[in-house]
Specification:
With 556 residues, the chain is α+β, with helices and mostly antiparallel strands. The chain contains 16 helices and 20 strands. It has an 8-stranded antiparallel beta barrel. Strands 1-12-11-10-9 form a 5-stranded antiparallel beta sheet. The protein has a 3-stranded antiparallel beta sheet with strand order 4-8-5. The model has no long low-confidence stretch (mean pLDDT 95).
């Protein structure tokens, strides 16, 4: 733990390597994962302070070669602020860019050019948050282009050493030569290999807990712990949530410039978490209590289970009590159907579109969001604190949401916990999922019936093969692991084959059913097969709409 003066309490427990039983020490390096982004953001904000560019500068002016595909580019280019706040609309890391066969130092622009697929703007920049590692890869490329040095040399010279952080490593091979914590997974705590990262700026750093606390204290004190690194007003700006429709509607919760809010034990903390295979990390502070904590784990155990008692202990030490909530009635004009529109990765777009639509109902000071299918989809209970500001009861009384209204005052959306729910009609909310559920039911019924009912057995065989190919895809997808995604193997080939064969069998079955309609005397059988093939075509159309036909993970 740390406060504005320094480290208050530190301790180590457990093993750096479960296999060799080597214990953790004060000097053990742990993987920080995305806490690295805070360091990258500080280096970028130094250049903003110096006037080399601004937060509103289009990225294309700083990196003309960056392969950004932005359909809104004419009026709304991707700007530096969008990269820092995860509001560019980019996808998150794609399969090809997870790991590298060799460890890279710097070369962020090269990595972008080799893996441009995530840099597709999915919504107007500056509208919604969508956590994106590739955005910070672009920031790393901006730093390297400006300083003409690898990213790790830049942040070491400009950020880490000035903050007094010396127990650090920017490459896994460097950490392996020192006292470091091995990564572990599963209940048996088996060792997880440390795979080389494609890039560094978004999550490559290793550090000790004591040194990482220096970074937390620097941000907590608005730079007072290391004068000259950044101006106080710059640090205060970094802490402010910005660049979404919710923040423009008055919401103070969300992504800042390299920092993010986190609700722990009913209190609003700020900092960053990190998560990589076999390791978890958290660096957070609470401005009102004037204290913070660093928690580094070399396993994938539940981080929050350890954070909550730590946060409660700090609140006990500082005698801090959260302010009493002041709930207010909310107008019933927010009632209606809404759908989430900002999934973190595009692979989640289809299930998000189908399932994450719900009905919002206002009653006194409470908003409830109920999905079409109980137990599936978006569900929340929100309390109104006045001026459209909302808190999710699952996280206590911390305001983390807001009702978004248009220029005429009509409710058009809800932003809550980083998710954006856009108002829609009942038909638009329900019909897509209803069509999928009905299609699945009809397709599942196709193989049944008397074997001799049809003269042309292929009328039934084709939709049955479509169903089997769908099952094949589901089985292969269920056996996928993160480390397998970018390679050609039976799982990824099976997913690709299913995404090709399923719609092909459906179309062939539909064509054959139509052509042989008059020749088949069994009305029930021919209708069942026709509807089964049509259902496969319907489901295939949904896959095509979300770019999942002929889907090869090794190219994604």
């Amino acid at each position: 733990m740390f406060d504005r003066q320094g480290t208050v309490l530190s301790g180590v427990i457990g093993l750096a390597d479960h296999g060799t039983r080597v214990p953790v020490t004060d000097g053990t390096l742990f993987r920080l994962g995305s806490i690295t982004k805070v360091v990258t953001a500080i280096a970028i904000m130094q250049l903003v302070e110096q006037g080399h560019f601004g937060l509103q500068t289009p990225v294309s002016e700083l990196l003309p070669e960056a392969p950004i595909r932005n359909p809104f580019g004419g009026s709304d280019p991707v700007r530096v602020i969008h990269l820092l706040t995860h509001t560019a609309g980019f996808d998150d890391t794609h399969a090809k860019a997870f790991f590298s066969p060799v460890e890279r130092q710097g070369r962020h622009l090269e990595s972008i050019l080799q893996n441009p697929e995530p840099l597709v703007v999915r919504w107007r920049p500056g509208m919604h948050e969508g956590y994106s590692n590739p955005g910070y890869v672009l920031l790393g490329a901006i730093l390297e282009a400006h300083y003409q040095k690898p990213w790790d040399e830049v942040v070491s010279e400009r950020v880490l050493r000035p903050l007094g952080i010396t127990q650090i490593a920017a490459l896994a091979t460097q950490a392996a030569q020192r006292d470091h914590a091995e990564s572990h997974s599963g209940s048996d705590m088996h060792r997880t290999p440390v795979f080389f990262e494609q890039t560094q700026a978004d999550g490559a750093l290793w550090c000790t807990a004591t040194d990482l606390a220096r970074l937390g204290r620097f941000v907590l004190t608005d730079g007072a712990s290391a004068p000259g690194v950044l101006r106080p007003e710059t640090l205060r700006a970094m802490k402010q949530a910005q660049s979404t429709v919710g923040t423009r509607a008055g919401l103070a919760y969300g992504a800042g410039l390299g920092l993010h809010h986190r609700i722990v034990r009913g209190a609003l903390w700020q900092g960053h978490t990190g998560g990589v295979l076999g390791a978890r990390a958290s660096m957070h502070f609470h401005a009102e209590q004037g204290m913070g904590y660093v928690l580094l784990l070399n396993s994938e155990n539940e981080l929050r289970k350890l954070e909550e008692p730590l946060a409660e202990f700090i609140s006990h030490q500082t005698h801090w009590n959260p302010p009493a909530p002041a709930h207010r009635p909310i107008a019933g004009d927010v009632d209606g159907w809404y759908r989430q529109v900002n999934p973190r990765i595009s692979l989640q777009s289809l299930p998000t579109y189908l399932l994450n639509a719900g009905h919002v109902k206002a009653q006194a000071d409470t908003l409830t969001v109920e999905p079409f299918l109980p137990g599936f989809g978006y569900q929340a209970t929100l309390k109104h604190h006045g001026d459209g500001l909302l808190s999710d009861v699952d996280y206590g009384e911390v305001v983390n949401g807001v009702v978004v209204r248009d220029g005429d005052g009509a409710a058009v959306g809800l932003e809550t916990g980083g998710d954006y729910l856009q108002r829609t009609s009942m038909a638009a909310a329900l019909l897509p999922l209803a069509s999928v559920l009905l299609s699945l039911a009809l397709l599942l019924s196709t193989p049944f019936g008397r074997r001799t009912a049809l003269r042309n057995r292929w009328v039934r065989r084709l939709p049955t093969l479509a169903l089997l190919s769908l099952v094949l895809g589901i089985v292969c997808a269920a056996n996928l692991e993160l480390t397998l995604l970018a390679h050609v193997n039976w799982q990824t080939v099976g997913v690709w084959a299913a995404s090709v064969l399923f719609p092909a069998f459906g179309v062939a079955g539909l064509v054959l059913s139509v052509r042989t309609w008059r020749e088949e005397p069994a009305a029930v059988a021919r209708w069942r097969c026709l509807l089964g093939s049509a259902s496969a075509v319907c489901l295939g159309a949904w896959l095509a709409t979300f770019n999942l036909l002929s889907f090869a993970l090794w190219r994604w």
